[in-house]
Structures are given as C-alpha cells and as structure tokens.
Specification:
A hairpin with a 2-residue loop joins strand 1 and strand 2. The chain starts with 21 loop residues before the first strand and ends with a helix. Helix 3 runs parallel beside helix 4. The strands form three sheets. It has a seven-stranded antiparallel β-sheet with strand order 6-3-9-1-2-8-7. The protein has five helices and 14 strands. By secondary structure, the chain is of the alpha/beta class.
Amino acid sequence: MDQATTVRKAAPTPPKRKRAARLMTVVDKHRITPQMMRVVLTAPSLEGYDEHSYGAHIKLMLPHANESEPTLPTLTDKGPVWPEGKKKPIVRTYTVRHLRDGQLAIDFVLHADHGPASHWALHCSAGDQVGVVGPAGPLPMIKDADYMLLAGDTSALPGIAAILENLAEDAQGHAFIEIPNESEQQALRHPEGVGITWLIRGADAPSQSHRMYNALSALDIPDTASLQAWVAGENSVVIELRKLLRERYGLTKPMLYAVPYWKESLNEEAYHSERHRVMDEL
C-alpha cells in the first residue's frame, strides 16, 4: 500500500474545546438492544460541542446513591477546584453518540446493576442530573481517506455508529463489530460503499476471541488506497489489532486511532494507569 498517497481533502481544524464540568438533565431514555440503553441529555448551553463532536470522548460525573445531583468542580487556571466537605462524583468515560437539536445522546452498555454507570442508566429518569466534561479526543474522530476501516466491540459500537453516519456519501471502507449475540445487532446508517460485518462472540471471553484479528487479516484493501483506521474496545484485542495494522499496512499515528476502552476484570479506576501506558505507546 502506498501510504504516501494523499487523502482526498484536509481534515477541518478541531474546534476549541470547553473542558469545564456542566450539569446536564435527562430528557429521555430508551433501549436500543437488550444490553444497550440510550440516555438523552440537555443543558442550557452546549458550547464546545459542534458537528465534529460525534464519537468524541466525554467524562460523566455520576451522583452517589444519596445525592440528587453530583458535586462538580470549578475550573480555574490551575485546574479543577473541588468544594470542601463534598464527596467527589463517580467518573466514567463515554462517547457522544449524536448531538441533535440541543440534545446529547449517550449509549450505555448494560451490565445489570453491576457498575455505577450501568446502574445509573438503568434507573435514571427525566429530570435527573449528571455532570459532563468534554468533548475530548481528535475531532473529527477519523480523517478522510480513500478507505475507512473501523473495528471494535460493543463498547466501541456507539463511536463506530456515530462515525459511520457522518462519513461522506461516496466513502469506501468496512466496519467490523464484535457483539456477544445476534440480539445486540443494530440497524446502522452508513454509506453504500462501506460494508458492515457483525462478528458473534458467543460464550468466548472478549480477550480470548480472535474473530476481529482473523477478519482484519483476511480483508483485501486496494494497494493504491490511502487508509485511515479507527479501533477501540478491550485492551488485549486493541493491542493485537494495532500491531497487525502497523505491520501489515505500515500505519502510523496520523493514520491509526487505536485506543483501549476497557480491560477484562478491571474497572475504570483500576485500569487507568495501564490504559494511559498503552496509549502512550502510540
């Protein structure tokens, strides 16, 4: 593959990001699949979010069980300052599924009542409040190229879906999405030239499934095409796919977004340091 080939058009300049925490209010929620819940939020101002915010990372600041709303910090030149005597909120990282008509949609993978974010999504109702910081990450999440390659598990599905529906109508490429069973398959809007393959993991543990690696290994991409790849999901799978894309296609950082979202058996706090080490290796 000739990686010197230029992309068809330059990526837009990323908008200025607003990193202050803001309270947002639940206006709606509904299940997308048995294990995916969409929660829709709004706020008086969504400054900092624009048309490039789809698929961007945000931090959710969740209230504790005995709180009606989470405690939020004040953003200063020296960083966030927390109110004295107040318990800091539970923080989890999520993805902007879409931003429409002043409303921000977030898709949650449900794990019954296990995990604070899953519990909150299951039990929140209209009028409840949550803190939100962001957006962050490269905006837009993927640059334009001759061929777009997207890959991830259920945790990456909201990001993949958001990118797919924002690709140019003449885009070419393929998306591989690994899900635990067929009931988690969604109807996704995407350009006609971008194929979608659903990989059913079944009873296998995510870290032990090599379906994604095998699928990408068998993919035939035109040698003359410029390539952009976006990969996210379980830690060991992302590392495996990143190595494959580097070695097979010579992809470097400008062409490859490969970020682990989670690691089997670890919560976000326990995984924090290792995740940043993996990202630093990029």
